[in-house]
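Retro notes, item 3 of 5
We never archived the inputs for the NAP complex last cycle. Fixing that now. Sequence and ligand:
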Amino acid sequence: MDSLGGTYTLGGDRTVPRLGFGAMRLTGQPGNFGPYRDPAAGARLLREAYELGFRFFDTARTYGPGHNEELIARALHPYPQDLLIATKIGVEKPAPGVVHPDGRPAAIRRGIDESLTRLRRDRLDLVYLHQPDPAVPIEDSVGALAELQQGGLIAHIGVSNVSNDQLARARSITRITAVQNRYNLTSRGDDELLDGLAAAGVAYVPHGPLGAHPAGAAAPLAQHPALTAIADRHQATAGQLALAWLLHRAPNIVPVPGTTTHTHLRDNAAATLITLAPADLRALDRLVLPAERFATLVGQFTGASGVTVPDESGRGRFGSRALKVNGAIFAMLSRDRLVVKLPRDRVDVLITGGAGRPFDAGKGRPMKEWLTIAADDDQTWQTLAEEAMHYVATQ
Ligand SMILES: NC(=O)c1ccc[n+]([C@@H]2O[C@H](COP(=O)([O-])OP(=O)(O)OC[C@H]3O[C@@H](n4cnc5c(N)ncnc54)[C@H](OP(=O)(O)O)[C@@H]3O)[C@@H](O)[C@H]2O)c1
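Structure as it came back at the time:
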């Protein structure tokens, strides 16, 4: 099999190339509602994806709703043996922008019947519970999928948009072979979870691999200036670098970037040819310090639990990279500058790897105090956070 980025064997018996195709965007816009504007063109794109080596296609009941599954069948049926189509169940979309979970077992059973019809299959390869329904215990929703699996209608079961706790509850009911959560270079809340899943032999399918909002067209990571600089060295684009990073991040990651264009489809396939050196990976980690990871570090060194970043998109003076912990504010200014502002305006401290007296743009004056750490290229943020905590502790 031609493989895009090597292969992953799902659930021990379905081997697919590691780069998948997310079909959600091949629906009416805005809101992924209604049929795709040009179904014949959408079918051509799906067929080209197959020709390029894509074998793992990601869809859902709610995309369209229904139209996206129908388009996949129109493009690719009768299905080649090596094709794996993953769909999702348990979310309803009655109108554009109106989405609500329905994880009741009866709704799941009805939905599976409908997906089987639309996809023209006797058995679905992989079905995720799209989103836990707060009104229905996840055990019941996943239990319904397990019964359908026992009845031969589903080969593999996955869960999507789950917390660690919800995943553990789902796994207590049945074997979960794939988890689909939002994850990318700047959304790293699942770092620990994904490493655990890699060890347990469970696939991790990151949605939004280019940082797109599900309801918006922009792909922020494809335009990220810091990524562009590194990408240039690889004669690649920022979007390709973001995908290559995911493929390097863990062996169980199977990204499903979504596109409507032949150019981006080919670019995404070509991203699997990029080899990132350890120095590239370290540089990427530092260039785009994920807010969640920053929170983890600060939590680790302050001993505070439950440190979270409230808004991924960023708000306030320091955007999403600012955290208040026990009265002290930690803010990341740039890849080598961490500000620690102590309570009651005692002192501002800037821990910096850069030279020169740092300037506090917010207050329009130089920082009152600062520390300079002899940072070189291998300086890690962990060390910076350690230094910050040491300084705070000795004040
Ligand atoms: N489980 C869930 O709740 C959930 C939520 C969201 C998505 N998903 C799944 O994950 C898949 C991917 O998510 P997504 O589409 O939201 O986000 P994404 O893959 O991060 O980004 C898609 C956007 O990036 C653009 N793009 C694609 N390749 C590009 C490239 N090489 N360079 C520049 N721009 C590029 C696309 O526009 P063009 O059309 O112009 O290429 C599209 O607007 C979906 O198709 C869906 O299957 C699941």
